[in-house]
Specification:
The structure is a homodimer of 305-residue chains. The first copy, chain A, is of the alpha/beta class. Chain A is 41% helix and 19% strand. Chain A has 11 helices and 11 strands. In chain A, helix 7 links the parallel strand 7 and strand 8. Chains A and B meet through helix 8, helix 9 and helix 10 of A and helix 8, helix 9 and helix 10 of B.
Amino acid sequence: MIRTLADIPARLIATGRRYRYAVICGSDAGTLQAALRAVSAGFAEIQFFGHTDAVAAAVAAAGPLPEGSVSLIPAADDAEAARQAVSAVSHGRADVLMKGLIGTATMLRAVLDKQEGLLPSGGTLTHQAVAEWADYGKLLLCCDVAVIPFPTPQQRRVQVALAARTCRAMGIDTPRIALIHCSETASDKFPYTTDYAAIIAEAQRGDYGPCLVDGPLDLRTAIDAEALRTKGIESPLEGRADALIFPDIEAGNVFYKAITGMMHLRNACMMAGTTHPVVLPSRGDDADTKYNSMAMAALTLNRHA
Amino acid sequence: MIRTLADIPARLIATGRRYRYAVICGSDAGTLQAALRAVSAGFAEIQFFGHTDAVAAAVAAAGPLPEGSVSLIPAADDAEAARQAVSAVSHGRADVLMKGLIGTATMLRAVLDKQEGLLPSGGTLTHQAVAEWADYGKLLLCCDVAVIPFPTPQQRRVQVALAARTCRAMGIDTPRIALIHCSETASDKFPYTTDYAAIIAEAQRGDYGPCLVDGPLDLRTAIDAEALRTKGIESPLEGRADALIFPDIEAGNVFYKAITGMMHLRNACMMAGTTHPVVLPSRGDDADTKYNSMAMAALTLNRHA
């Protein structure tokens, strides 16, 4: 099982496969460093779309790389680079899309394009972040800290289904998924909590594949077995959640920024819900985070998850 | 200025005053220990309402205490103890109300009673937690992590006004108050963020007394000067907020449980918005937290804040 972020690229390397990444405007130092490290590690082939002069210089400076592991596709501008990269993914020439030094809006316009994009009609784009918290002894998946403001019942179900898939791709046979709320009691004051029981029932009948879903749980009872005992609450998750589904983006975002900004936990992030995983790092992400995010995205291509 | 939780009782002791606490059913070990410590420290007189046999035994075991610093008022049941304690406060015989081993609902029924309670008609009851985060070098006030689900515009204004007052009571002449959101951009998708500008304008014209209010700010840009610079954002708070106003209880609660449960930050809590401060500890609070919470509540009696 994967217990640390470093286990993720290690798992990919162990497969002996090379995953194909389409990187848009990958000319910033962090993206270049992450991409070339993935190439050197042997699990990545990179197609760089746009900003090819800067990329070519960095590739040359990197020294010898595995045969055919890097290709450069020039583009007239960033929007064109994004369109070409998305097209490479949607036509099966790449497995994972990744953002470099390009505006998020410009990139998302290509990803979400109704004709040529990567989001199926009626689909839901959602963010997944996986954090490494040493005290916990395993990774913790957080959904969604960045994209969906106030999930509709349908969007929350997509979040649960995709959380279960991503956890299974990380080697957890029966992921434990917590539906977070400020207490353990469903209430009409918080309409989404009254829907949690239906989601749990759907999980029990197998709608989301093998997984255990419980909620409402507060953050403590989701991830702290002792807090669960102190409160006298029974939960099939036993205070050992693998994934947290936050009630809204405000809660998810505050959590993510507390664990990264105050606790300095390392993490990896990706967008899910698209036909292929999309790596869309934050401005502040360092090369190591980008590298782990690239690995996380490729791991979710696992078809058995 | 107060920079640590320990500074709070130290400040009270320095006043030489004895603050009068009405404690309801204070027979649990944590409440007794906190209350008797406050008495021994010299800043507290305690009136124990209900559970007087158990309290009397603990008081006897504690050894000599300052003259007249403890009194015991028996009650037929917990609800009666709560009513008597609230009455002592509302009739000026005590300054602070505190919960012991009594159901929260039973206690709140007495506090919120329209005739005899402590909440003015049309008033707003809100929760304040102050956390000690060593890396930050000062205390951080969090509003509201426990009581108001989705603050109305009016409730948010009360939160801001009371946050400013509590910070001033802690010796901060011009408290920095951050209106939290998942980004720094107000948007119609998050209707409360479009109200933030009006609150800031009200603060500038002095509606909340001396204070600096800014938002929307995300958690990072509220409390991390470097994150602010990296994002290229100007804020009068300079990444040094004294108080965080969370958009909703879900965000506040997740933050509070992350900093207490994962980071193990120490904190003190109270209820504000009532005519007198109310100490209503969580089940899991230890004696030290209860002691600091008692001190925090008395400090907010400072009339100049």
